[in-house]
Design goal:
By secondary structure, this protein is α/β, with parallel strands linked by helices. It has 7 helices and 9 strands, in the order βαβαβββαβααβαβαβ. The chain is 35% helix and 23% strand. Helix 1 packs parallel to helix 3 and helix 3 runs parallel beside helix 5. The termini are far apart. The model has no long low-confidence stretch (mean pLDDT 92).
């Protein structure tokens, strides 16, 4: 049986972060019709392969084929008409430290890519992530190595934390900032890097936590 011809090809070689690859897949799907096939070429990396297969199963976009090719894998994914999700995730982020931002933003973005409704509340030093010009850093004596750490993460495919927030918003996620924390760190509303941030306090975000199937505190 012959395989369907892809309408578009996405070359994601050199990127081993699944949320980065899958965001590009979702973005590419935006220009495709239901039933169209997208070809995705990725590094032959076990964790990435596992995540692509999991995403296909959860979202309902069928993985038609996965074929090894010269150190890479070629995936054929058909765009399907998927039912809207009824699941929600709420995350609270209280840190602006580089390594402490990776997991919560990564999980929030992964949930949004799988179709969950996602809301993230930034509080304490975490509100700095939303300020224009923000650069994440390492803690304590490791701070002097922050630039090298950022470059290393970027080389492996990790997006800047603000890029992950932008992608989350683009996928329909909601972002909240703690008003008192903004005041504490002297961040005015017009200094925020995003227009869609809701400024509130605990009572506002409790509504998101109350209806969430998954909660995360970092």
């Amino acid at each position: 049986m012959s395989l369907p011809a892809p309408v578009r090809t996405l070359d994601a070689r050199g990127i081993q972060i699944s949320t980065h690859v899958l965001f590009d897949v979702v973005e590419a799907f935006g220009s495709l019709n239901i039933g169209d096939v997208l070809e995705v070429v990725c590094d032959d990396f076990t964790a990435l392969d596992t995540d692509i297969r999991s995403w296909s199963t959860v979202t309902g976009h069928p993985l038609i084929d996965a074929e090894p090719m010269s150190g890479a894998i070629r995936y054929l994914i058909r765009k399907a008409e998927c039912a809207p999700t009824v699941h929600r995730m709420a995350a609270v982020i209280s840190s602006d430290e580089l390594t402490e931002l990776l997991s919560p933003l990564g999980f929030a973005l992964a949930a949004a890519l799988e179709g969950l409704e996602v809301a993230v509340f930034f509080q304490g030093p975490g509100v700095r992530v939303l300020e224009r010009g923000f650069e994440p850093h390492l803690k304590g004596w490791r701070r002097v190595f922050s630039g090298a750490a950022r470059r290393g993460l970027e080389k492996s495919g990790h997006d800047h934390p603000q890029e992950k927030v932008r992608e989350l918003l683009e996928l329909g996620g909601k972002v909240y900032a703690c008003g008192p924390s903004l005041e504490r760190f002297h961040i005015l509303e017009d200094m925020l890097a995003f227009d869609d941030v809701v400024i509130g306090e605990y009572v506002t975000f409790v509504n998101e936590l109350d209806g969430a199937d998954i909660t995360m505190y970092c």
